[in-house]
Amino acid sequence: MTQPTLIDGKAIAATVRDEIGRRASELLASTGKRPGLAVVLVGEDPASEVYVRSKDRTANELGFHSVKHTLPASTGESHLLELIGTLNDDPDIHGILVQLPLPSHIDESKVLRLIKPEKDVDGFHPVNVGLLTSGEKDHALIPCTPHGSLILLKRTLGSDLSGLNAVVVGRSNIVGKPMASLLLQESCTVTVAHSRTKDLPDVIRAADIVVAAVGRPEMIRGDWIKRGATVIDVGINRLPAPEKGEGKTRLVGDVAFRECQSHVGAITPVPGGVGPMTIVMLMANTLTAARRQLGFPEDKPIF
Length: 303
Ligand SMILES: NC(=O)C1=CN([C@@H]2O[C@H](COP(=O)(O)OP(=O)(O)OC[C@H]3O[C@@H](n4cnc5c(N)ncnc54)[C@H](OP(=O)(O)O)[C@@H]3O)[C@@H](O)[C@H]2O)C=CC1
Ligand SMILES: Nc1nc(=O)c2c([nH]1)NC[C@@H]1CN(c3ccc(C(=O)N[C@@H](CCC(=O)O)C(=O)O)cc3)C=[N+]21
Fold this sequence. Notes:
Blueprint: E1 5-6, H1 9-31, E2 36-42, H2 46-61, E3 65-71, H3 77-89, E4 95-98, H4 108-114, H5 126-133, H6 144-157, E5 165-169, H7 176-185, E6 189-193, H8 200-205, E7 209-212, E8 230-233, E9 237-240, E10 249-252, H9 257-260, E11 266-267, H10 274-293
Parallel strand pairs: 1-11, 2-3, 2-4, 5-6, 5-7, 7-8, 8-11
Antiparallel strand pairs: 9-10
Helix pairs in contact: 1-10, 2-10, 6-7, 6-10
Bound molecules: NADPH dihydro-nicotinamide-adenine-dinucleotide phosphate and 5,10-Methenyltetrahydrofolate.
5,10-Methenyltetrahydrofolate (GUE) is lined by residues 50-51, 54, 97-100, 122, 144-145, 236, 251, 270-272, 275-276, 278-279.
């Protein structure tokens, strides 16, 4: 039996990061400025802290200007809005990311709408969503996880994805919907499945490309996946792992990885698949945002 291709997100992220580093050095040489990223974290969510630390580390490694604002969970909405106003007006900050989810007393969409679209490195502002869905993605900032997932697909299958059947499982604003928009623009035939989808296994069996973004550990079984299909597992689920020691945990995706190995064409592991791409695409967006704000926009998108 042939082994499936393991899509090495960590290695691909490293090549993307090198390219960002080169371009950031060019920007520094011509403008004297470094891309600046502000990450805002409200409340103490241990999972979010891992991601925020990793963003901070990667930004520092690339020589970006990086600031982190950690606010208590009890922070009032008006205080958060005020901070965003300050970051919007700060010329050294080119990208603003507010870690989600926010505590329930804060109106998430109100916060996201206040971020200047040109600084919205998550790509969640309605202006960026509109540019992406209306086919003007070269002028948008594109959400990091779907954009990173698309790069993994192109590195695996080649740049022409046209005509392939793609099934996206999940319809969130962060992953599922923008992923579907991107694949549609690549001329895939796109199906978006969700919790009300009937006969999910059969829907998935028709897919050449499966993107799983559900948040349910190993929900998608191996025998739902067509022979030779490419699987992008976005899910990150932390399960207890007593075998590793008391209180230890392990990460698993939304796809039963081992059951897929005998017949898929290629698959991303968890960890080491989509996650590392999310972080580097955030850096790519921060660089793009900085170049545009400093009057040095790219002739064409970097990625
Ligand atoms: N690797 C990375 O960089 C990132 C990973 N993630 C991970 O990806 C996963 C998804 O995240 P996110 O999109 O934010 O999650 P959400 O909870 O916002 O969305 C989950 C989606 O899955 C659908 N769903 C839930 N149960 C089922 C089911 N039984 N069958 C089919 N569809 C179902 C929901 O449907 P409905 O709309 O009908 O409720 C919803 O659309 C999580 O594990 C998250 O941790 C997220 C962001 C980045
Ligand atoms: N405004 C906002 N933007 C986001 O992009 C955003 C967010 N909020 N909230 C939470 C989710 C989740 N997310 C991840 C980023 C990196 C990894 C990552 O690097 N994962 C590593 C493993 C990390 C570990 O060991 O925990 C991997 O998969 O290899 C995972 C998940 C971004 N999100």
